[in-house]
Amino acid sequence: MPQTTAYHHGDLRAACLRAARELLEEDGSAALSMRAVARRAGVSPAAPYRHFPEREALVSAVAAEGYRELTEHLAAVHPAPAAPDEIAAVAVAYVRFALDHPALFRAMFAEPCDPDNEERVAATAAIAEYVRDIARRAFPGADPDALWTSVWALVHGLAFLHLDGKFDTSTPDAVADQVRTAVLALFTAAPALSQAADTQPR
Amino acid sequence: MPQTTAYHHGDLRAACLRAARELLEEDGSAALSMRAVARRAGVSPAAPYRHFPEREALVSAVAAEGYRELTEHLAAVHPAPAAPDEIAAVAVAYVRFALDHPALFRAMFAEPCDPDNEERVAATAAIAEYVRDIARRAFPGADPDALWTSVWALVHGLAFLHLDGKFDTSTPDAVADQVRTAVLALFTAAPALSQAADTQPR
DNA sequence: CCTCTCATGTGTGCACCGCTTACATTCTCT
DNA sequence: AGAGAATGTAAGCGGTGCACACATGAGAGG
Description:
The structure is a homodimer.
Chain A: H1 12-27, H2 34-41, H3 55-77, H4 84-100, H5 102-109, H6 118-138, H7 144-163, H8 172-188, H9 190-199
The structure holds a DNA duplex.
């Protein structure tokens, strides 16, 4: 039957997200255009606008998806890391994710995120909470704020600088070793960290 | 004289860079278009292509300029930091630069940098060298590699997460305190860092 | 001084983009 | 079954990157 209607797509929103992800992985964020997404979904150029009022909204939705996947990816390594090596393993997974999905990772962090997209802020809040929990578990007594920000920043910075080719990424093992080393070192300094946080109040 | 020739601009390349910087600061990287640059320089849309074969080349040139300015900015705080507080002060300046020039900082780091643009790689090499020197000075005996990468990553991550609004950036002092705290803590851990680097060879 | 040459700027055009508006189709709900 | 909302299409506007042929004028060689 040629006329199996097909006027309505079924789940165009999901199809758009899938197409966007594919375009992102294939040709980078420049290739992620509304029209290209529409083409790939087999739909008219204006159709995606029914589900994403503007390009920015599509990108934000993709980024939110990325945040959730990253969180799952980390949790899969260890659901509740506490010991330094467990935490270091999670850090390695973070950098690994960035290197495995460079365009997605950039979409998540590289462009200014709009504070209005609630899906996106929810997803980022979730990952921030995950990191904060790690700090809480690893250092029950300490003020977690000074810890989790430092840990996240270190790992995030490692991910980005690796992504930008500033460090050697030739072999996965070299990357993993470097990340592990840096994170473990930071954790040996943790007592000094929370102490410093006490010293200069707020 | 209306006809002071003016057919040739004089120094269009510099004018384009200036215009690009202005557009970047005013309206973000999306506003940085070849045509907008041409308009602002008072020149035809195709003229900038005589100096930058493609948009990417213009962006790379702006980024290289940014790298050089950042390096100067850091060196101005302290030309040869060695003590922890001096280094922490430089770290604060790094984050400050990112927050003061968000679009420029993003242009420098957020998009995949092409390894072919030699101006850009030279500028990044210079800043990497500056950071490496810091590590060397601060820890003369130690293997500097494990140090400078960690320090840079921590600071870079702090800059980016602040830029993305993941941390509190309401007052400059709060930002500075957080950066100082994190960096100082990492430096107290430096012995452990180089020791770990020795333990797991390469 | 005059001409030749070439770097540099102009004009035009193509394909693509984001986004809007008016219209067509289908789903859903009563 | 009919109304109205949801979701698709068609057409069009202004902007963009980039390629091409052409115009201009500054500097080198006679």
